[in-house]
Amino acid sequence: MTRNGPDDATRKGTSEAKAIEGLLAYALKRPRWGHSAIDYLTEAIARSRALTRESPGEHTELLARSLRTAAKVLLKRRRAMEALPLAQEAVALTRAGGGAPLVVSLHALAAVLEALHRYSEAAATLAEAEGIAPPPDD
User: Fold this and answer.
1) Measured between alpha carbons, how far is 47 from 6 in angstroms, rounded to an integer?
2) CA-CA distance, 117 to 113, in Å (whole number)?
3) SS3 for 131?
4) What is d(CA 137, CA 37) in angstroms, rounded to the nearest whole number?
5) Under a CB-based contact definition with an 8 Å cutoff, are residues 114 and 122 in contact?
6) 51 near 59, Cβ under 8 Å?
7) Which parts of the chain fold into alpha helices (H)?
8) Are 128 and 87 contacting, i.e. CB atoms less than 8 angstroms apart?
9) What is the pLDDT of residues 55-105, one digit of tens each?
């Protein structure tokens, strides 16, 4: 029987990265009116930060994804001011690596900025995302 509860992420033998991914997925399935999604996202961010401290290059993208997911959920709940620092941190984390993670983070930041009626900043952020070259074909 397949289980899809929050305790799946803490099962014995589950890697920390997979546990964080499970928390993110479970948080996205929670109802908008409940507070449990925010709790799962807070835990995912805290665990991602700990993993990133242990091995920065390996888990930085996971932390950025956790921050983007939290910003997305907060934005759906009309809490754009709380989502802004999370989206900004996701951009800062992905800026060094560039590529697709940076583009996704910039789009998330632009959505938050639009929700805050900061349209010129959102347009500049989207323009930056459009200016990022795609990876070369081999």
Assistant:
1) 14
2) 6
3) coil
4) 39
5) yes
6) yes
7) 16-28, 36-54, 56-76, 80-95, 99-115, 119-130
8) no
9) 877 888 889 999 999 999 999 889 999 999 999 999 999 998 888 899 999
For the chain, what is the radius of gyration of the CA atoms?
16
Burial class, 120, CB count within 10 angstroms (exposed 0-12 / middle 13-18 / buried 19+) = exposed
* Residue 33 CA, distance from chain mean position: 20
Q: Which two tokens stand for residue 38?
A: 């925010």
Q: What share of the chain is helix, strand, coil (3-state, %, to 5)?
A: 75, 0, 25
Nearest to 44 by CA among 8, 82, 17, 71: 17
Q: What is the DSSP letter of 15?
A: -
Amino acid at 89: E
Dig out the tokens for 46 from the structure.
């805290």
14: left (phi over 0), alpha (psi -120 to 50) or beta: beta
Q: Which two tokens stand for residue 97?
A: 């690596």
Tens of pLDDT along 95-137?
A: 988 888 999 999 999 999 999 999 999 999 999 999 887 766 6
Q: What sign for the dihedral angle of Cα 74, 76, 78, 83?
A: positive
